[in-house]
Amino acid sequence: MTVISATDLVKRYGEVAAVDGVSFEVAPGESFGLLGPNGAGKSTTMRMVGAVSTRTAGELTVLGLDPDEFGPEIRARLGVVPQQDNLDNELRVRENLLTYGRYFGLPRRLIAERADELLEFAQLADRGDAKVDELSGGMKRRLTIARALINEPRILLLDEPTTGLDPQARHILWDRLFRLKEQGTTLLLTTHYMDEAEQLCDRLVVVDHGRIMAEGSPAALIRQYSTREVLEVRFGSERNAAAAAALADVGDRLEVLPDRVLVYADDGEAALVEVTARGLQPLTSLVRRSSLEDVFLRLTGRSLIE
Amino acid sequence: MSAVTEQRAMRRGGVRALYAGNARAVVGRGLVATRSSNWVVIASGFFEPVFYLLSLGVGLGAFIGTVTDAAGREIPYAAFIAPALLAVSAMNGAIYDSTWNVFFKMNFGKLYEGMLATSLGPLDIALGEILLALFRGAVYGIGFQIVMQLMGLNLSWWALLAVPAVMLIAFGFAAIGMGVTSYFTTFQQMEWIMFVLTPMFMLSATFFPITVYPEPVQWLVMALPLWHGVELVRGLTTGVVGPELLVHVLYYGVMIAAGLAFTTRRLRALFLD
User: Fold this and answer.
1) Contact A166, A138 (CB under 8 A)
2) Residue A58: which region, alpha, beta or left (left: phi > 0; alpha: psi -120 to 50)?
3) Is B119 on the interface with A (CB under 8 A)?
4) Is the alpha carbon torsion for B163, B168, B172, B174 positive or negative?
5) What is the pLDDT of residues A136-195, one digit of tens each?
6) Is the pTM of this model over 0.90?
7) ipTM score here?
8) Which of A3, A159, A174, B93 has the most crowded CB, counting CB atoms within 10 A?
9) What is the full DSSP assignment across B73-133?
10) Chain A residues touching residue B271 (CB < 8 angstroms)
């Protein structure tokens, strides 16, 4: 039993295919991620799942229904956190929740109860009467998430939930989302932050140019497409390419970036010993665990954040 | 197979996806939001026609004296222009809410995007916003009607029906105004609304009968919505009531239906692609 099922999903705007044959399935209670750079087609996919955009081709069911036919029924059971906050600035914080609940046709008393619980959950209980404009970026984001939960959705759609937030605000948000996940809410989220995907996603697809490049759990993807460790060495931007030529057979694989050389090896320290043994003196060196960023680089030859 | 296809087609084109029967949630939101409104702007929309009535009706009217109405009676100039200004005040209220307010919500507030992520459909939003605009138009109209009563410019008991007539006028302008605004993305484009409204205000038999125009121009003016509004309200407040008033009502009925359909289509095209 899946809650979202997409098969060869396509969305074309004129000649341009924003989504070009995407297939994936999301199980109930699962936290599923779409990872990719800006313009990869993540948001367009989210809009189709959210029943606010019709597909050009392919099959899509959300909670067993076709979003092109049953838009209102599906939207009634979804929570949507858009990429840019669209809170109602003319209303106060608590009023935002109350009014949004009314859009779903829910009774006032029920909404009032839930609004208080959700303000608590969003750590905004003491800001209920504040104006939206007075909130910080992180608070606005948490209010947007609280608002998306007012109808007790079966699925929560999060489009770039922490983009533009400072590190502390991101960690608070992740903690909140992790709690939702523990309570069994199905999460579908897009992100171009690999640390976010690693923190929140049980499973994810890597998307680029509207297509799926790979699918799996973060750990499995790293195992499959990267080595256990990565050695990052910098020789100065002039000398990186020359140094890389001398290192061609060190480790499993090399990536030469404009500012550094990445050496993929299961043992990073041993690779570093080998580098110095060849008479090369890097300006800086760093051994770290492989991340989804490395998976993306391997799959597309490009960085996630450009 | 064909039955399934038919059913699909029906659902896609059907009203189900457009309307959740919950326009009251949109109206409710508007009433809560009104508290943070710019009250100076709201008040100025009401006082503008009042000032016209005082300066032109009372001031200039002292020089003009009386005007011959449709029934051939001599009536004071103020009583001639007051119903026209009443129709204008309804139009102003409706236009302000359905153009500038909608413009901001659409382009800056992203309000409708948020609403359409819920069970609401485009028709709920269009109807809700238009009802709010109608409400403001009605408040202006009733306020102006009271001013007219105090100045003794309601010449007949039919004037009581001017209140529903004013709501009809506000509904019509709000429905068209919101649809037109959906095409505008810059402030410069919004100026075009005034470019259309100002001449219509001046020329729709507001301050003088259209018989002063050559016949082709008369036909042109008679095609404009405000002329129908002015004639409808004038007929009622001066007590010259005949079947031609029903034509004006019908004109607004068509305008409301067309405006609602048009606005709903635009909202769907903009936010549910």
Assistant:
1) yes
2) left
3) yes
4) positive
5) 999 999 999 999 999 999 999 999 999 888 899 899 999 999 999 999 899 999 988 888
6) no
7) 0.85
8) B93
9) -EEEHHHHHHHHHHHHHHHHHHHIIIIIIHHHIIIII-HHHHHHTTT--HHHHHHHHHHHH
10) 52
